[in-house]
Prior knowledge:
12 strands, alpha/beta, globular, 11 helices
Amino acid sequence: MQRRRLGTHGPEVSALGLGCMGMSEFYGATDEAESIRTIHRALDLGIDLLDTADMYGAGRNEELVGRAIADRRERAFVATKFGNLRGPDGKFLGVNGRPEYVRSACDASLGRLGIATIDLYYQHRVDPSVPIEETVGAMAELVAAGKVRYLGLSEAAPETLRRGAAVHPIAALQTEYSLWTRDVETNGVLATARELGIGFVAYSPLGRGFLTGTFHAPDDLDAKDTRRNHPRFQAENLAANQRLADAVKALAEHKGCSPAQLALAWLLSRGEDVVPIPGTKRVRYLEQNAGALDVRLTAEDLRAIDAALPPGATAGARYPEAAMAAVHR
């Protein structure tokens, strides 16, 4: 397994990680046994970066990851997040970055995961009502206490990154990045992370699965799949975006790989500081994604991809309005 470093002085992790969110919620039916097999297969392949969060399944996802790694903790690099609050019924209640909450959220995650130390602890969304210096300061205390090894931020704007990194080294920034979400290339986020020596963890690297070419209509998604509420999967946007998925498929056929492998290979080509974390709950898709590491894109390939999917080509916002308000803070 190829390895990449998160941040100038951060840890080495597998060049591809595994997003575990869909194993518990959001993307339709779940299968815990298959999800655990998927995590085990990832570790066997050398994919050690496992990404979860306390809000996924309202804590159930952390519990699932904890059960999966209970007898192989030393082989896993566990990343989890705090800050997105949910009620007992799953309702989203806002963002909390207050120091006292940071401490209690960490203890709760450690308990659900069944581990003594979180390898990488992210603030999931920036709380605009709490100075980032106070939140990162509380996170730094967790490092000093041995509860956390490295710190991260998610969907943070350039100035927020700078202020947070001035308090304590930030190993990774996790933000959406893919062939259909290239905002970070033009809004200063990727450039700032590189300037500060912060690794970039790309979530939804397959466009929430859309770039795999398996979706053509809303009914292709489970009735409970939250992507039905995303602007890019609706009406005219879906039809426009289908052309992008078709372009990826054509480029992949020319290259002799799957659309998912092409999309991941493109992200891997963006720099040694970029680590995609494609999510899946099935072993066969995990193995297919891992094949992206063997795809070599030439300069001609990259020009063709840029021509077909330039920044800003995707129709629709990447989240519903309320969720969009919480990104790039």
